[in-house]
């Protein structure tokens, strides 16, 4: 007889959503439960409308090399959840232009529409997700894992997938668990993001710019992405190094400095900035990691995935999750636990 299995996923960023969707296709929707501490899915694929202006204040865009991700993006593009971001891209060395080119459909730079958050929202649709439910404790039971959110018990699950940054995953795992050593070797880096609304649409001569040898690493005209509101909006990211150095500084001072950097490069006047604020990301970017792209402990029925096990990119987070799905489905197949066979075209093996 086929055994039923119930899997919990902690985190609804792109990696957690990918695992949950793919496993739900194999085991059925009711076999997978996602717990998310925020009130929305997406994690670092985050968007916000402030005074009518659109801001993607986490991931800006992504590129795709993996065939299965390309197929998923094509499906979303057909449903107008994804589009390409085209226009002039510039690289600055401090304040000097050192290279420029056009982003076009020959090498697509994808964005969600009407915002980046539309992508995780689309992925989350068929899933059972408990929002505003931080998992604060996990306890190994004879069979599976018991999850807790503060004083509430969330249930016991046969398998547990942790799809959150390493520092946060380590805090949940037992101190002696085998994943601790690997996870402790990966240091996520912080970042400050400036969100600035402009009083008029100013042409910077670029839609996006990479900045080297400066306290900031990125400037983009967020409003130049397709299907955004008419309000002109700009995003600036600090470098990870500058953010690390100024991590506990006053946010007003951080904002002031990032605005100065923006003005120094784009030459826009102070009066053109209608409003602005700053977001501090503690675990923003993951350096390249060359070990295993996911962690799996068959004996204890627990796994970890996410961008940090590859590199700080959306495609990397997706890849980590896909490789984990491949191992999990093989394990379930071996143990004869399938409730559903995947529908044709649904399971994208790597
Ligand atoms: C400022 C910035 C700019 C970036 N720019 C780009 C870019 O241009 N292109 C690109 O490809 N990538 C970019 N990235 C990286 C990209 O956003 C990430 O690689 C990707 O989103 C990571 O997905 P993930 O699922 O691994 O993790 P996350 O997106 O971090 O998802 C983890 C989720 O787990 C939740 N969570 C954490 N702890 C708990 C808990 N205890 N209980 C329940 N839920 C919990 C979080 O709320 C979050 O929703 C950027 C990131 C940042 C921060």
Describe this structure in words.
- Helix 1 (14-27) packs parallel to helix 8 (314-335).
- The chain starts with 6 loop residues before the first strand and ends in a 15-residue tail after the last helix.
- The chain is globular, with a radius of gyration of 21 Å.
- A 7-stranded mixed β-sheet has the order 7-6-15-16-17-14-18. A 6-stranded mixed β-sheet has the order 9-2-1-13-20-19, with helices on one face. It has a 3-stranded antiparallel β-sheet with strand order 10-11-12, with no helix packed on it.
- It is 26% helix and 30% strand.
- It is an alpha/beta fold.
- The chain has helices spanning 14-27, 67-78, 118-124, 166-172, 179-184, 240-245, 251-266, 314-335; strands at 7-10, 32-35, 47-50, 53-56, 82-84, 87-93, 96-103, 110-112, 129-130, 137-140, 145-149, 152-157, 159-162, 189-198, 208-212, 216-221, 233-238, 273-285, 295-297, 302-304.
- The longest helix is centred in the C-terminal third of the chain and has 22 residues, at 314-335.
- The protein is built from 8 helices and 20 strands.
- The chain has 2 domains: 7-44 and 120-186 and 288-335, FAD/NAD(P)-binding domain (3-Layer(bba) Sandwich), CATH 3.50.50.60; 61-115 and 189-285, Alpha-Beta Complex (Polyamine Oxidase, Chain A, domain 2), CATH 3.90.660.10.
- Flavin-adenine dinucleotide binds next to helix 1, strand 14, strand 18 and helix 8.
